[in-house]
Design goal:
single chain, 129 residues, alpha+beta, Porin, 8-stranded antiparallel barrel, 8 strands
Amino acid sequence: MFHLVIAFLVLTVAGCAHPDWIEQTLVTVDVTGEWRGSWASSVPGVFAGDRPVVLTLTQKGPKVTGQITMGAQSNGPYGPIEGAVSGDIFDFHDLRNRVNAQLQVNGDEMTGRGTDGGFAATVTLRRAP
């Protein structure tokens, strides 16, 4: 009996260590709109520099859908994206799973890290007026 009580207490305490479900679904920002900025990567011998990026987003609750255009459409990723907002973090990927990013939203600015074809980048965006 003593072992059952100890096992129950261990499981109860372990369950308390997980974040609250409310915290995981909390949405504190709205990213709806057009966002413009740069996708800056530096991969020696492959690509280095800033490419313009445009996200056109629609948010419903925590879910976000939209379009991405990076560089000229003939040489950069473009197409539909989907993602989610949790707190002030916007996490998205394109539907071909080539591009993804995790950005912190601060008012009309978003900054963070992304990847394009596995190459890391720094992403900086501003909401268009």
